[in-house]
Amino acid sequence: MESGTKDDSIEKFRGFHIDDDGDDEVQEIIVDEDDDEDDEDDDEDEQQPVTLGFLEEKEYDWSLLRQSFPSKAGGVPAWLDPVNLPSGRSSACDICGEPLQFVLQVYAPISEKESAFHRTLFVFMCQSMTCLLRDQHEQWKRYPEKASRSVKVFCCQLPHLNPFYPSAPPRYDGTDKPSGTGAKLCNWCGTWKGDKVCSSCRKVHYCSQKHQVTDWRLAHRIDCQRLSLSSQSSDSCSSNGGTTSSEIQKVASNTLWPEYEIRNVDESEYDTEMMEDNGHASSLITSNRVDDTMNSLLQKFEGDSDKKSWASFQQRIVKAPEQVVRYCRDAGAKPLWPMSSGRPSQADIPKCRYCNGAMIFEFQILPQLLYYFNVKNDADSLDWATIVVYTCESSCEASVAYKEEFAWVQLYSPSASVP
Ligand SMILES: [Zn+2]
Ligand SMILES: [Zn+2]
Ligand SMILES: [Zn+2]
Ligand SMILES: [Zn+2]
């Protein structure tokens, strides 16, 4: 039965909530950084409707495939446009040159814009804390200086009719299929386009020499011979390589972050429930553990304004301490800053590099994600207070399939010295 109206079908795409009533009062986005008065408390009173993202184990194998238009964290990206992936310098850390690791993706279509009928934002970062510390200095650079980033965000949008997906909404029952095959992906990271091929078996592809060498050392040296032999009897590559229907990518790397589905809940639902003991049935870490961590972090802050900011941050987060994403694309929406230091001013947010228009806050990632990713608490382990994603206000159409948007990373100690 595919007789649903257009509105029905749009609702069946389970994206992050996009509120398009345009009459929200417009607030200034940036608070004067030297202002020590009670502005943070005032901000709390004018709450924008925020959609929270929580991590859950995926329900089915197909839940996180691209034809399900997932929001997900860890593992490999479910590329929306599976062919024209970011490549070259875009896919690597500008500081150390390593291919970037997939953090998460958020499916956030803009219903009133036909060219963004499907729209997914992808966040990647270098796993090196050394790079992230250097990235801190880079993110303050202003045009025309070229920043070298270790955190990158891409936006991909597709119209309703496109070569990659049927126009009918997904049934979410395991029978959904994409319309075409995707690009060959790297055998090691499963993340980036595999432009390079193993010269011996010519069966497996890699995004970079780095990943080819790593795979050879750890696994492919043995597989390679077997693959070369099997190709003589039948071309297993063509029966196996263009996996249209399942497309479950086998990934050799064991250093990807664990994979989760992101489930959305409106923050307002927690306003009434917050007094009850309502841990999610499926929550993966306990609230107590998050609370303890939050409290211990408070000791780190020296400045009063940071302490105050942290307190109001925590007050808002504690309603649903396992949230990892806060999403709100409304006009005037602001991120919830854990600290008052290390926030960008309006001038620090660049213009859209494609249309030169303004970029606005769209969502932020909270440090709880690091616990789900089992990132250790060592001195050189990856750590951040929040990652804030800004995107083109008009979600402009560009000639590239993946537009690069802007990420601002706030660390707990922005003054940390660069090694
Ligand atoms: Zn790096
Ligand atoms: Zn790779
Ligand atoms: Zn090989
Ligand atoms: Zn733009």
Automatic annotation (TrEMBL):
<feature type="domain" description="MYND-type">
    <location>
        <begin position="186"/>
        <end position="224"/>
    </location>
</feature>
<feature type="region of interest" description="Disordered">
    <location>
        <begin position="1"/>
        <end position="50"/>
    </location>
</feature>
<keyword id="KW-0479">Metal-binding</keyword>
<dbReference type="InterPro" id="IPR002893">
    <property type="entry name" value="Znf_MYND"/>
</dbReference>
<dbReference type="GO" id="GO:0005737">
    <property type="term" value="C:cytoplasm"/>
</dbReference>
<dbReference type="Pfam" id="PF01753">
    <property type="entry name" value="zf-MYND"/>
</dbReference>
<dbReference type="Pfam" id="PF04194">
    <property type="entry name" value="PDCD2_C"/>
</dbReference>
<feature type="compositionally biased region" description="Acidic residues">
    <location>
        <begin position="20"/>
        <end position="47"/>
    </location>
</feature>
<keyword id="KW-0862">Zinc</keyword>
<dbReference type="GO" id="GO:0008270">
    <property type="term" value="F:zinc ion binding"/>
</dbReference>
<keyword id="KW-0863">Zinc-finger</keyword>
<feature type="compositionally biased region" description="Basic and acidic residues">
    <location>
        <begin position="1"/>
        <end position="19"/>
    </location>
</feature>
<protein>
    <recommendedName>
        <fullName>MYND-type domain-containing protein</fullName>
    </recommendedName>
</protein>
<dbReference type="InterPro" id="IPR007320">
    <property type="entry name" value="PDCD2_C"/>
</dbReference>
